[in-house]
Amino acid sequence: MKRSFGLAFALFVCTFTFAQQALWGGTSIVSPEIHENNTVTFRLKAPKAVKVQVTGDFLPTQKIKTPFGDFDGPGAADLIEKDGTWEYTTPQPLKPELYSYTFLVDGLKMNDPNNVYMIRDVVSVTNVFIIGGGRADLYKVNKVPHGTVSRVWYNSPTLGMDRRLTVYTPAGYETSGKNYPVFYLLHGMGGDEEAWIALGRTAQILDNLIAQGKAKPMIVVMTNGNASQEAAPGESSLGFVSPNMQLPKTMEGSFEMAFPDVVKFIDKNYRTIKRKQARAIAGLSMGGFHSMHISKQFPDMFNYVGLFSAAIMPDNNVKSPVYADLEGKLKAQFAQNPALYWIAIGKTDFLYKANEDFRKLMDDKGYKYMYYETDEGHIWKNWRIYLTEFSPLLFK
Amino acid sequence: MKRSFGLAFALFVCTFTFAQQALWGGTSIVSPEIHENNTVTFRLKAPKAVKVQVTGDFLPTQKIKTPFGDFDGPGAADLIEKDGTWEYTTPQPLKPELYSYTFLVDGLKMNDPNNVYMIRDVVSVTNVFIIGGGRADLYKVNKVPHGTVSRVWYNSPTLGMDRRLTVYTPAGYETSGKNYPVFYLLHGMGGDEEAWIALGRTAQILDNLIAQGKAKPMIVVMTNGNASQEAAPGESSLGFVSPNMQLPKTMEGSFEMAFPDVVKFIDKNYRTIKRKQARAIAGLSMGGFHSMHISKQFPDMFNYVGLFSAAIMPDNNVKSPVYADLEGKLKAQFAQNPALYWIAIGKTDFLYKANEDFRKLMDDKGYKYMYYETDEGHIWKNWRIYLTEFSPLLFK
After folding, report:
1. How far is it, in rounded angstroms, from Cα A169 to Cα B295?
2. What percent of chain B clears pLDDT 90, i.e. is strictly above it?
3. What are the tens digits of pLDDT across the range A325-352?
4. Which residues does chain A have within 8 Å of residue B269's beta carbon, measured at their own beta carbons?
5. May I ask which residue range the UniProt record assigns to the signal sequence (chains A, B) (predicted)?
6. What is the 3-state secondary structure (H, E, C) of B174-222?
7. Which residues of A touch B360 (CB under 8 A)?
């Protein structure tokens, strides 16, 4: 009788694994396979398919025609079939980076069933992989002390809602007894409090930079910048709704006006250094727009400001006290000499001109800022770069 | 000029959304659509497909033949094509539950591109949806105060490793100043510290039970029970490795012997009630095995023990001091009258007989326990039920 327990369990494990594979489509195929020279092979078992392609940001971009004009999108490459398994190997080694991809099977998009690593970006879920080396090693989990990542709910009296935050506290926070500076990090349009921790790799980047002594230990607070929303899709009482790129109350002043609620909550519930010198705010795209407006609306709050591919829109046709008197408020903000005002954008970003105009305004007024320019455009690759460049400049 | 900013951005939003949909396969199709009467329609746009099926645990099970014997697996249903879009509506309303499904397109498994909600279970990622009502309302995010969910790293001196935990602290923890009881909740084979918070819906279940006054506010600690592993797949320095059902050092004593490291870390870093009366341990399958062995190995540590479909294996052919003298250790454990020893299993579970034999042993010795039996077998549906039944019994 004793024997049968172990035997039953061993059989269960085998059966379970086999059945999971049979039912849910897992196979023994390896995809993506990253070779030693950093070429990558993608594989898909699809005996009945006529055409299989892989599309992703590791391929040269291609022009996508849309009703709104051309768009630089990820390219596609054909897989070749042999015995029912399709395969494509990149002709060249890939540069270090976190890449996204999906398959196109007879025109139908599908995620790679042999790669469980997927990240949602607004309305789409794609597979991901990392080619290590250089800056991309900062995007990896390495053998360094790890901070804590928490999903926390706070009450916003100004918005009259309970809302969700993602909070990174650095390794050692729990036991050090010390107080820490706080970096508020804001997502772009369609994003939420999951964006920076997922595609942004914030926890990995901060763990690694802090371990290398390049960034100060700090708390990073990732807010939800959609003032109509309690939490990321699936995390509120709305249930498993479809994510939406265009939400109400995103760039009309509500989020900015309610931002002190977040700072108060963080200062009350974490061991923070509760003064301007120990606070930074930055964001990508819409989050850059928010960071610009919040930092000038509350000029005593932040000493470090980062605009990452910021959606700078002097005239956004919204009447809110937040957007009134841009120049007067900038003047008040810069009269206090912020320690850092950092502007970054990619050369092909559709917001390049808007940022150039904003820099001209800054130059005209003699406001000091640092400028960082990269190749390419309005993409996560750039935002991860900006985070790795900006965070070492903070709280020094 | 001013005009162009807003226009460029509006165009970007449209183009971005359109391009994302075109490139990554999102469409305006709604799937799954949960109708008011709780029938559900699944849809997939696949003009070139010959046969499209949906498979999932909302369908009657079917026998799957494997080299290891037959296996009760999810059934499959055919979708019908019209104008390139395939559709299937359940003939009957579905009962309240969290369900998993995927599509099979010409035999190829694929996730639903119109449903961003997916959860990994060991080696497979499937889409999920919830039919509300009854017990399943506990699995939803509702308008109640929400606890905090943290991913925390601790050092295990016994294992000589930094390891990852998922910790739930109840709503109000941050500000109450109170000390809380702790419930240690353990996953099954192939699982990790993400299992209970993902498919287990622990945060939602505890938020809801606590808000209803049915469970005491408590801290829930979800460990990683694979003693060879620092963290869940993708969360350690191993990188984006393929998950594996069969890991080394899972049921050979290492995890059990090192468990006091976890308790010490939690007691040091959280406001806990640091005594046996305020500690519970439970787990599913392998986690039930672990809970049984840990609670008798350290009889002064836990006052509440839950075995959920426990992998009880009196002879698992492993020589570890943990597994020696089962009866002697149970005697010592029950000599101290634990407040609750709770055994639950499904009628068709392959471990039913093993649990029956274990209960006979308990009965023979006169050890008190509660027994809870459900329909069906070794599935998450049952483990969520057990969590909703067990946690209200704790710390009363």
Report:
1. 32
2. 82
3. 999 999 999 999 999 999 999 999 999 9
4. 174-175
5. 1-19
6. HHHCCCECEEEEECCCCCCCCHHHHCCCHHHHHHHHHHCCCCCCCEEEE
7. none
Mean residue pLDDT across chain B: 92
Architecture of domain A26-132: Sandwich (2.60)
Q: In chain A, what residues touch B45 (CB-CB under 8 Å)? A: 108
**What are the sequence ranges of the domains in chain B?**
27-132, 139-393
pLDDT in tens, B260-314: 999 999 999 999 999 999 999 999 999 999 999 999 999 999 999 999 999 998 6
Q: Which fold has domain B139-393?
A: Rossmann fold (3.40.50)
The Cα angle at residue A221 between residues A219 and A226, in degrees rounded to 5: 175
Q: Is A28 in the B-facing interface, judged by CB distances under 8 Å?
A: no
Nearest CA in chain B to A117: B240
- Tally of CA atoms within 13 A in the half-sphere of A206 that contains its CB: 26
HSE of A7 in the Cβ direction (CA atoms, 13 Å)?
7
Chain B residue with the nearest C-alpha to that of A110 = B110
Which pair of structure tokens corresponds to residue B98? 């969290």
The verdict on ipTM greater than 0.95 is no
Chain B residues closer than 8 Å to A150 by CB:
148-151
Q: How far is A300 from chain B (nearest CA, A)?
A: 26
CB B188 within 8 A of CB B286: yes
Q: What pTM does this model have?
A: 0.94
Which of B165, B169, B187, B190 has its CA nearest to residue B178?
A: B169
Least confident of A313-317, B95-99, B178-182: A313-317
The CATH number of the structural domain formed by B27-132 is 2.60.40.10
Q: Indicate the burial class of A91 (C-beta count within 10 angstroms; 0-12, 13-18, 19 or more).
A: exposed
What does the pLDDT read at residue B11?
56
- Amino acid B139 reads Y
Output the pLDDT for position B23. 47
Residue B156 in contact with residue B261, Cβ under 8 Å?
yes
- Indicate the pLDDT class of residue A316, thresholds 50, 70 and 90: low
* A2–B128 C-beta distance less than 8 A: no
On whether the CB atoms of residues B347 and B374 are closer than 8 A, the answer is yes
B 85-144 residues inside an 8 A Cβ radius of A: 102, 104-111, 113-118, 120-126, 128-130, 132, 140-143
Of the candidates B272, B260, B349, B348, the residue with the CA atom closest to the CA atom of residue B311? B349
